[in-house]
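Its record is retained below.
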Amino acid sequence: MKEFDIKKAYHLFYLIRRSEEKIIELYDTDKIKSPVHLSIGQEAIAVGVSLALDDNDIVFSNYRGHAHYLAREGNLNQMWAELYGKIDGSSRGKAGSMHLSDWSVNFMTTSAIVTSAIPEAVGYAFAQKYKNDKGIVICYHGDGAVDEGVYWESLNFASLHNLPILFVCENNKYAIYTHQSKRMLNDSISERANAFGVKASKVDGLTTKDFYNAAYKSLDEIKNGNGPMLIECLTTRWRDHVGPGEDRHIKFRSDDELDNAIKNDDLLRLESMLSEKEVKKINDEVDNKINEAIKYSEKSSFPDTSEITEEVYG
């Protein structure tokens, strides 16, 4: 098992956190041209899983995909230009926050539709096995996705064909504002997956390393022909379901639940494991990269109206 890289984990975690904090800062200026779904509070999963991946692994994400994209080291300039709706974005400014992509790092285009990437990821994994290609498919999804029938159909197909795919369920317990207990009988995501023949485990951990260890172990099983696998990662999102704001006023969860998650922020724990000099160097490097990406986006042009329907599919 390769050693957990604390310095890189902190770098990626800080990059995600600062990027999304910058989105919050800029959102009301109308420079960002699409709705955003932030991952603040959930970053440890994306960082931990990504550190366990090989270069030839393929990532499918969803509309809350900034963390997955950045942890996979997608192009920062292109991400910001896409948020700004500019031609230098990953989709020439036409896709926005919920449809990020960077195929150069095997990060497939995301979608705003819940569960839409899941059968796509399973299909890609089927192709990987059919062609005997290297690379495991990673399929991120939330707990809300398991309410859809296509999710279980996809798990059944993946199990039936023993596909090289790792499902990563980011369970923040709420589908928008509805708690898991009001949407399904018992705490049964992992149990149901096991019933479909997908080996599943629950990671009730707070640290990036917990998710790294779980992902690495599952990926190793898949490489040895024992896939597919699922890791259900318990987490808490700190901000509103959509947009840059807080959601405490809605009272769909207790303040204690959110306060405890913030208190146990793993970014601070990772920071405490590095020297002050190392932390400052990483922080300065990341802050500079984000500022340069924003400048890059502001200098870029909007796409011409003549191409409004080009390479746009429905």
About this structure: The domain at 6-253+262-299 is CATH 3.40.50.970 (Rossmann fold). The first strand starts at residue 58 and ends at 60.
